Amino acid sequence: MRKLMMSAVVVAALAGLAGCATQGPYGNYAGASLDANKTMADATVTQLVSLYPPARTRFNLQQPATDAYGAALLTALRDKGYSVLEYSPQTQPAAAKSASEAATANALTAATSTPGLALRYVVDSPESMSLYRVTVQVGPQSISRAFVVATNGKLFPAGAWVRKE
């Protein structure tokens, strides 16, 4: 019985840690080239087009898009016909106690103050591999895909898009 209780505590602690790891800040943490960022942004928009119809969907960006991926993403979204409300710190909630509360508050603020879907992204890269990973959160759902850097420096998808609902 004691072993069962300890196992339950360990599982609960690990689940909590996994939840904290996915609630981190959003942005571009990969040192990818401009061409690589554009390739990843174009692939992201192609996937978003299959999930959310352009000209009927409005995205509310929940972070500054000052990096190369964010700028390419905004351009590609608008070129495909999406309406995109860019991030404005004045419309964000003033005080939030944690990253998860801030994300929840931002989603609620975007949902109640302006029509559209909250949009966030993370671009990162494991240090020991020639991979980049793009994760885009649209409202409560997220899509992710890995990209591999070939020997000639070109970027190719390393697998299919993964969608978490």
What does this structure look like?
40% of the residues lie in helices and 24% in strands. By secondary structure, it is an alpha/beta fold. Strands 1, 2, 3, 4, 5, 6, 7 and 8 form an 8-stranded mixed β-sheet that branches. A hairpin with a 6-residue loop joins β4 (117-124) and β5. The two termini are 35 Å apart. The relative contact order is 0.17. Residues 1-23 form the signal peptide. It holds the Pfam family TrbH. Keywords: Signal. InterPro entries: Conjugal_tfr_TrbH (IPR010837).
Give the structure's gist in a few sentences.
By secondary structure, the chain is α/β, with parallel strands linked by helices. Helix content is 40%, strand content 24%.
SS content category: alpha/beta
- Return the string of H and E elements: HEHEHEHEEEEE
User: Got a strand count?
Assistant: 8
Strand content: 15-25%
Radius of gyration based on Cα positions: 18 Å
Contiguous low-pLDDT stretches (5 residues minimum) are: 3-23
- Categorize the overall geometry: globular
User: What proportion of the residues is helical, as a percent range?
Assistant: 40-55%
- In total, how many domains does the architecture comprise? 1
Signal peptide: 1-23
Protein name: Conjugal transfer protein TrbH
InterPro entries: Conjugal_tfr_TrbH
Keywords: Signal
How are the SSEs placed, and which strands pair?
Layout: H1 2-21, E1 27-28, H2 34-51, E2 58-61, H3 68-80, E3 83-85, H4 99-113, E4 117-124, E5 131-138, E6 141-149, E7 155-157, E8 162-164
Parallel strand pairs: 1-4, 2-3, 2-4
Antiparallel strand pairs: 4-5, 5-6, 6-7, 6-8
Helix pairs in contact: 2-3
